[in-house]
Amino acid sequence: MTAAAAAAGSLAVVGLGPGPAGWLLPEAEAALALATDLVGYIPYVARVPERAGLARHASDNRVEIDRARHAFALALDGRHVAVVSGGDPGVFAMAAAVIEALDAEPAFRAVPLRIVPGLSAMMAAAARLGAPLGHDFCAISLSDNLKPWDVVLRRLGTAAEGDFVLALYNPASKARPTRLGDAFAHLRSLKRGATPVAFARAVGRPDERLHLTTLGDADPALVDMATLVIVGSSETRWVEGGAGRRWMLSPRSYGAPR
Amino acid sequence: MTAAAAAAGSLAVVGLGPGPAGWLLPEAEAALALATDLVGYIPYVARVPERAGLARHASDNRVEIDRARHAFALALDGRHVAVVSGGDPGVFAMAAAVIEALDAEPAFRAVPLRIVPGLSAMMAAAARLGAPLGHDFCAISLSDNLKPWDVVLRRLGTAAEGDFVLALYNPASKARPTRLGDAFAHLRSLKRGATPVAFARAVGRPDERLHLTTLGDADPALVDMATLVIVGSSETRWVEGGAGRRWMLSPRSYGAPR
To answer: In whole angstroms, what is the distance from residue A17 CA to residue B101 CA?
Structure first.
């Protein structure tokens, strides 16, 4: 490390996982213990316990790039900054915003930067459901804040054509409440109505709720921003467990006789 | 829990993450501490420390379904079994094999079953590289042990058409050494040669190695079975970091003016 970098403090982008302590990686816990400053979206900053000497810089949603610039500025001022993110910071979260801020400002290169991964919402939801991601899959954000809606539709179409399992992030929007219904309608034109679908809401938190349905019956009104939607491939099926439980399975093999 | 289930022991499918202790979830560590029996592929079983009263049932690769049946049989015999998997058990790993075994044998429904997620190799590699999965992406296994190779090619094609970032699992095979070269050739016919590509080998382990290249220059000879290959979208780019470091970025926005 150069003298300049040592003087510059440091920046860690830290994944907090979906919520429970059992799903926080030890590396993330250690990074939080070393931080002098927390930067992030209000509910994620609130998850980190108070500690003497730990400054909090919580901000509202949709200001990711400002937040990232602020974190670099604090680090250049000698602070040890943790930018906190729910789930994994690399999946539709703060790692990209931080690297974008770095790309726009060469002075930020003096800051030692690392990304500390976390358990993604997708993997947590899959664990509760069984093995819905046991075969090839795609992760798609349905938000059209940062990309045109026709790109979302094109990706849903190509993913359906490739018969991938789909993990749909950011499925609901108060500003655009019809988007998920439009997405389901598009998928229904390309896939069987009997395709298994799961809504996995707030997995790992006290208000966790799993809803198992099919593409034909999937009701967008049951989905909010805390929900991850998983849509099966043509091979995904339900498997009976004990005590009335059903598991969602995307088998390892594809195209094999049943 | 019913009396039958209580007598039946239990089965947990446990994700060990990519390797280092800092990437093992506390829930996984707790599940391992409760286990009387470990079942899994030899190198994963070997990762769990010895402990009095812990029986080990390590098996070679490609016997996943036998391994899953054996785990259920042990649990029916009253043992508390942890089926261990590298990375996340839900991603091209043991969770699917265990649910498939459950599907084939109704007697296994008496066994209380849970999946304990883990940090996937994909998320670990992404953290080292920056934010390659910061936008919509697909995970595809290149193995044709369990699906026809033409399905692999079709998925690569549709994923390229949708301009997804690609995370390629199981990219190398001693039995079929030309597969990755064939996959790169197919992608080169559909995507720019300058598309950023990363080979992330053994991330988190002592022999970790990152190789940054492009689709045009990607050399399959540098890839082995411990490597995850990430191929960018049309928007993925390199970002200069400090000290000669380059980061791989798939920006949050898509189709925006640069």
So the answer is: 30
